[in-house]
Amino acid sequence: MAPLILITGGCRSGKSGFGQQLAEDIPGERLFIATCPCLDEEMALRITRHQQDRKNKGWQTVEEPLVATDVINAAAPGMTILLDCLTLWISNLLFAAEDEGRELTEDLMTVEASRLATAACSHEGAVLMVTNEVGLGIVPENALARRYRDLVGRCNQTLARAADQVYLVSCGIPLQLK
């Protein structure tokens, strides 16, 4: 199977651009899985900027905020997949669970992340995933923000264990951790 590559870093660190460049260096078809819902005007501008960055570079795009595993499982063999980003996917899962009266616990997050890792590792093509490193700052003051931070940390650990390569991007400079 082709590699699973996890790319992490802080906000605006250059991780998405690095992931896109890595994916574009791989010959063949490319699929971008966008997990970001368009909630306001500022987010719409960010989405447009990302779309422009991929324009005329052979990308197909699927917008999927919740079931990224299904998109990976349905992707054509040999296709390079870039999922951007896991932190928004987790946020989407967190609020979907709350809307359904459920709680997304760290154990359930581990199950979801493991399903995603299994799909990625089973895919006959490279899969790159972008995430944020949210655990380097201060402890958030409210319970929801702390739970979100913990869920992201749990997901990142699960996927990093399964990944063939892990990169940390800071100030636009990638550092290979694994």
The coarse silhouette is globular
Q: Which blocks of ≥5 consecutive residues have pLDDT under 50? A: none
Query: What average pLDDT do the residues reach?
Result: 92
CATH fold descriptor? Rossmann fold
Residue fraction in strands:
15-25%
Assign the CATH class. Alpha Beta
Percent helix: 40-55%
Number of helices: 6
> How widely separated are the two ends?
18 Å
- Count of DSSP E strands? 7
Order of the strands making up the biggest sheet: 3-2-4-5-1-6-7
The number of distinct structural domains comes to: 1
> What structural category characterises the helix and strand content?
alpha/beta
- What is the H-and-E element order? EHEHEHEHHEHEE
Q: Radius of gyration in whole Å, from Cα? A: 15 Å
Protein model, in words:
The chain is of the alpha/beta class and 178 residues long. The protein has a single domain (4-176), classed as 3-Layer(aba) Sandwich (Rossmann fold), CATH 3.40.50. The chain is 46% helix and 20% strand. It has helices at residues 15-24, 41-54, 68-74, 86-99, 106-122, 143-162; strands at residues 4-9, 30-34, 59-63, 80-84, 127-130, 165-170, 173-176. A 7-stranded mixed beta sheet has the order 3-2-4-5-1-6-7, sandwiched between helices. α2 (41-54) links the parallel β2 (30-34) and β3 (59-63). α3 runs parallel beside α5, α4 (86-99) packs across α6 and α5 (106-122) runs parallel beside α6. The longest helix has 20 residues, at 143-162. The two termini are 18 Å apart. The mean pLDDT is 92.
